[in-house]
Amino acid sequence: MTMQVSIRPTTAADIPAITRIYADAVQHGTASFELEPPDEAEMLRRRGALVDGGFPYIVGERGGVILGYAYVGPFRPRPAYRYSVEDSVYVAPDAHGRGIGRTLLEALIVRCTEAGFRQMIAVIGDSTLQAASIALHTAAGFRLIGTLDAVGYKHGRWLDSVYMQRPLGAGAASLPEGMIPKRPART
Q1: pLDDT tens digits, residue range 121-177?
Q2: How far is 17 from 8, CA to CA, in rounded Å?
Q3: Smallest Cα–Cα separation from 125: which of 160, 151, 96?
């Protein structure tokens, strides 16, 4: 059953709800490889760093209640990766299975495409328990790139990481706006 939610950029006032949603994911799930949930001050700092960096950070709400949130950050810190982002989508535990993750991910894809990013990477922890996240990303046009076996240890067991990728806009079919290829030097 799909639940209607409104999507909007986050504000600092959303941090308590975001922190609660993430704390549940850290304490009870395997989507995040963090072992201790960060406090509100740390979540506010993380949000600020992403928003200040020009990365979309959104919430899905209904009736003033935040049911989930999603954001992207740099896939890797080196400059050559600047057109690639890594997505994160978290849904409140009592709102799973209602289409909120799909709505958030679709909105994130649109915002990232409009911002000029060209590739979105999903790093999904634990292919066993995160089958819904893998299905969500597949439905949104991601393809499986590979799996890193047993790279994390949490909740008394080894966890893998599934990598998925989706082009945004023209993807690699054209140069980013304003980019002019360097001509090779003549020898």
Answers
A1: 999 998 877 888 999 999 999 999 999 999 999 999 999 999 999 999 999 998 887
A2: 14
A3: 160
> Does the CA dihedral 17-22-25-28 come out positive or negative?
negative
Distance spanning both ends of the chain, measured CA to CA: 64
The single-letter code of the amino acid at 106 is E
What phi and psi, each to the nearest 5 degrees, are found at residue 84? -115, 135
> How many angstroms separate the Cα of 29 from the Cα of each of 26, 140, 159?
6, 22, 11
What tokens were used for 109?
């894809």
Cα distance between residue 169 and residue 112, in whole Å: 9
Render pLDDT for 19-29 as a digit per residue (tens, 0 to 9).
999 999 999 99
Using a 10 angstrom Cβ sphere, with 0-12 exposed, 13-18 middle and 19 or more buried, the burial of residue 85 is buried
Strand pairing partners for 153? 158
Q: What is the pLDDT of residues 49-86, one digit of tens each?
A: 999 999 999 999 999 999 999 999 999 999 999 999 99
The closest alpha carbon to 84, from 13, 145, 6, belongs to 145
Which letter does DSSP use for residue 14 in this model? G
